[in-house]
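Journal club prep, shared notes

We agreed each person brings one worked example of a sequence with its structure written out as tokens. Mine is Squalene monooxygenase. I'm keeping it raw so we can talk through how to read the token line rather than staring at a rendered picture. Sequence first:
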Amino acid sequence: MVDLTLLGSLLLAAFGVFLFFRNGFLKKIEESKGDTTAAATVVDERECRSREGGDDIIIVGAGVAGAALAYTLGKDGRRVRVIERDLTEPDRIVGELLQPGGYLKLIELELQDCVDEIDAQRVFGYALFKDGKATRLSYPLEKFHSDVSGRSFHNGRFIQRMREKAALLPNVTLEQGTVTSLLEEKGAITGVQYRTKSGEETKAYAPLTVVCDGCFSNLRRSLCTPKVDVPSCFVGLVLEKCELPFANHGHVILADPSPILFYPISSTEIRCLVDVPGEKVPSISNGEMAKYLKTVIAPQVPPELHSAFLSAIERGNMRTMPNRSMPAAPHPTPGALLMGDAFNMRHPLTGGGMTVALSDIVVLRNLLRPLRDLNDAPTLCKYLESFYTLRKPVASTINTLAGALYKVFSASPDQARNEMRQACFDYLSLGGVFSSGPVSLLSGLNPRPLSLVCHFFAVAIYGVGRLLLPFPSPKRMWIGARLISSASGIIFPIIKAEGVRQMFFPATVPAYYRAPPVK
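Then the structure, token by token:
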């Protein structure tokens, strides 16, 4: 009897040990299965939180437009998710000059401190050079606070400051990832699909998705008609150990074949941008570019900058950037909006891109402020319809001026075009309203399309007057007629692309909502 009891105890103990190890083994198997599906579980949870979640707005891209928009909407209490392909400091040769009109928008968005502590330089106007002559064009800043002026800086430093400021807001999430597509349900955009930094494919949902992923956007085709023109390329160099002929001014040289720009980007560096017409530029790798700059461009550079220009060529740190132009031609899509260079580009000659982007952000912010529930899709659509109309005065003025000035400032074998170029230089050299008017348009301080057209044709008429006085001749009269025709051929196609009705008669364009004035 004792032996049977002992045997039973041993059998029960062995069975208990078996169960212990079996359960432990099964637990390990479940844990290993859990490891293989952990990423998917995290993604599912993230998607659930996002859909049920809490994001009010998704912003694709954290450049100037994306970072500024994230801070602005976050400050208004919106829950914002920003997805940016690369959160390291950008290194670009454009987007380095902010016009006074753009700086005023920066103040309105409470982002003016982002130009502090990055060695930004104040800019008070332009200096224009042609055939050895120079004229200074000052911004009309008399009516503004003493802090208002243009600013020039390293583009990447400015963007990083705005990203840092946006990331400090508790309701703004800045995430590194690559957006691969927009998510669509029943004709409306509901969010984005993207690849995280670790390579996971995931989705994010929000009532409104704002795409501002720059000039190389791969998402714009579904939201607009992209008619991208590339009239030229910029070749960028950095000059050191030299001073500009006119301190704290941008310099534009009306060179042959097209303009050259100089402006400070720090207390010790001057950016030089050489415009090369066409989409192809001489090769940098085989030395053709250095030869072109030395033989064609260097002789046209002001003497004060000549040696520094040659030294910059010798250092070899040359970079190129295509100059893109794209009119805004949106496909109004529920749940989505395009902004920045993804939506609208102009030749960067006048440095107006950031001013347009910041102005657009102010318009969008004012439109969204009264709308507390972005999930109310019909109301959101009606509000956003007004965005395209309200942005037009600033955007169309800067876009049209940029395209027209580039064509006027470029050399041409056509004598009438060259007369227009000379007339423009002389007109601006007159001073007074003849310089302050166009410069106020260029700087974004006076975004009035009608004023732009008036000044443009005033230049053309001034050019005709130069030809006919003191003694007109049949040849000069013919050149004058061609000059007017040439001027019309420059500006009217640009106005047509911008939209005549939207540009000059925005009040006649149907809109459901007008932004209230900023107090």
